[in-house]
TrEMBL record, chain A:
InterPro entries: Anti-sigma-factor_SerPK, HATPase_C_sf, HATPase_dom. Keywords: Kinase, Serine/threonine-protein kinase, Transferase. Residues 13-135 form the Histidine kinase/HSP90-like ATPase domain. It comes from Alkaliphilus peptidifermentans DSM 18978. PANTHER family: ANTI-SIGMA-F FACTOR RSBW, ANTI-SIGMA-F FACTOR RSBW-RELATED. This is Serine/threonine-protein kinase RsbW. The keyword Metal-binding does not apply. One of its GO terms (molecular function) is protein serine/threonine kinase activity. The keyword NAD does not apply. It comes from the Bacteria.
UniProtKB/TrEMBL annotation, chain B:
SUPFAM superfamilies: SpoIIaa-like. It comes from the Bacteria. GO terms for molecular function: anti-sigma factor antagonist activity. Residues 18-105 form the STAS domain. InterPro entries: Anti-sigma_ant (IPR003658), STAS_dom (IPR002645), STAS_dom_sf (IPR036513). Transmembrane segments: none annotated. This is Anti-sigma factor antagonist. Belongs to the anti-sigma-factor antagonist family.
């Protein structure tokens, strides 16, 4: 009998675009270790990159500072929490892309919500944004 | 891995042919944006993107594609994307962008 898994991994990443690929590689390794299939690993990689992109572009915008990512690994569930301490300007509303009026930005949160099983966004004006998202293994979700 | 962009003008089909290799994300999307601006400045013709070796794209890259398409639409030209990987096709499907770009193969 194996014990229930409840492992935590924390990353602190500079507010610099070149580190987003490092986060993608890290999360791919974590999800692969847990046993996620390739399709779900791709979903998780895109979702975490969107959250990091959001933290870098809407967060503190100071490239001398860092933002934080936490991974919580359970038996069949990976949760990722991305926190920045920026202006806190995004909302939890789902905006379905308007094909007649496409903008060059604003797809990120929509993509996260489409790819992950659970998503919570807490954005406090002046305090920053926390994106918490989870993906389950298996086909039940 | 970063992003490699190879482009040439296909005289026979009268359109740009671009090969993307690697990843388009927040770090590399500016490079792609500049490439598109240059091409469209030079010749306002359709752009065919071969995505055979495109491993990854996210909203920042999709935003660049949308921006390029907007510019091309002013001249009634399209963006055609070929040889797309399933993970990227999925992104285009969920965002509805598969309806505004021409997806082939």
């Amino acid at each position: 009998m194996s014990k229930a898994i409840n492992d935590h991994i924390k990353l602190s990443i500079p507010n610099k675009p070149e580190y987003v690929s490092v986060v993608r590689l890290t999360v791919a390794a974590i999800a692969n270790r847990m046993g996620f299939d390739i399709e779900k690993i791709e979903d998780i990689k895109v979702a975490i990159a969107e959250a990091c992109t959001n933290a870098i572009t809407h967060g503190k915008k100071d490239d001398q500072e860092n933002f934080d990512i936490e991974f919580i690994l359970k038996e069949k569930k990976l949760t990722m929490i991305v926190c920045d301490s920026g202006r806190g300007c995004i909302t939890d509303e789902i905006n379905i892309p308007d094909l007649n009026n496409l903008k060059e930005g604003g797809l990120g949160i929509f993509i996260i919500k489409s790819l992950m099983d659970e998503v919570e966004i807490a954005s406090d004006i002046g305090k920053g944004t926390i994106i918490r998202m989870s993906k389950y293994m298996g086909d039940d979700y | 891995m970063s992003l490699l962009i190879k482009n040439q003008f296909d005289e026979q089909q009268n359109q740009w042919h671009i090969e993307l290799e690697g990843e388009v994300d927040i770090y590399t999307s500016a490079q792609l944006k500049e490439a598109f601006i240059k091409l469209i400045e030079e010749k306002k013709e359709a752009i065919k993107i071969d995505a055979k070796n495109l491993e990854y794209i996210d909203s920042t890259g999709l935003g660049v594609l949308i921006g390029a398409l907007k510019r091309l639409k002013e001249y009634n030209k399209d963006i055609i994307i070929i040889n797309i990987k399933p993970s990227i096709k999925k992104l285009l499907n969920i965002t509805g962008l598969d309806k505004i770009f021409i997806i082939e193969g």
